[in-house]
């Protein structure tokens, strides 16, 4: 009869439908591929809820699950979708979910579904991703988790977490590649008109993730940097603006903002250049000068370091 791999998707009220429908379509397309047929390999997708009752998605759709979570006996892969925000999952569902993931060969989540996995304790001391807007909150609630806010899909052992609703497709494609090879994954991605993997990860969506300083003098420096990214923003100039020595300024800025002044300036300049790349029909050389990089080569290095994507690729994707 060949190999059957069961993919279980626990659902709850408020679940984001794309987080489970996207991966389901990927597995369906994989089942239809010649390679899967030749290998007699088939995904069986099961949706479940705590008691098997219907759930209402965040978009207002009502979904009738295949079964209750406790009724699942064969668990190949668990995919826990997220919600539009941080999901509210009751203690009983969390307990059932914890029992489910302990039996699974692979455990995954999509977007803020990572918060649900975190409640089971399975992510402790592991790297994990969630939607970039909620990365800081995940780290605050679960300090034992090494939160990666940059990558779209993060794998740590048998656990894989994906950054946002649409990244569930990326996640499913990576699982298909693991099971059936890159050729099948590429065939599926072409049939769904998507990338096997997208350049840039999540970092490209989070322009500037930094705290506001507690000190009024440092907040004034931050405002200066954001208002005039193309200006003279050397350590000497910034510390002078704050009325501090360079050594004192460097220490206070890092402790209050969470990064060095140089890193902050670079991220502000990348954010400024990224907006100009998508909003203005100007050459990269002009944008690099206006954003404070000086040269296109310097801008490219900063984009690759901060966003993991080149300026031209950024313009191509977001213009």
TrEMBL record:
Listed CDD domains: GATase1_AraC_1 (cd03137)
Species annotation: Streptomyces flaveus
PANTHER family: ARAC-FAMILY TRANSCRIPTIONAL REGULATOR, HTH-TYPE TRANSCRIPTIONAL REGULATOR RV1931C
GO MF: DNA-binding transcription factor activity; sequence-specific DNA binding
Protein name, UniProt field: Transcriptional regulator
Location of the HTH araC/xylS-type domain: 219-317
Record-linked Pfam families: DJ-1_PfpI (PF01965), HTH_18 (PF12833)
Record-linked SUPFAM superfamilies: Class I glutamine amidotransferase-like (SSF52317), Homeodomain-like (SSF46689)
InterPro entries in the cross-refs: Class_I_gatase-like, DJ-1/PfpI, Homeodomain-like_sf, HTH_AraC, INH-QAR
Keywords annotated in UniProt: Transcription, Transcription regulation
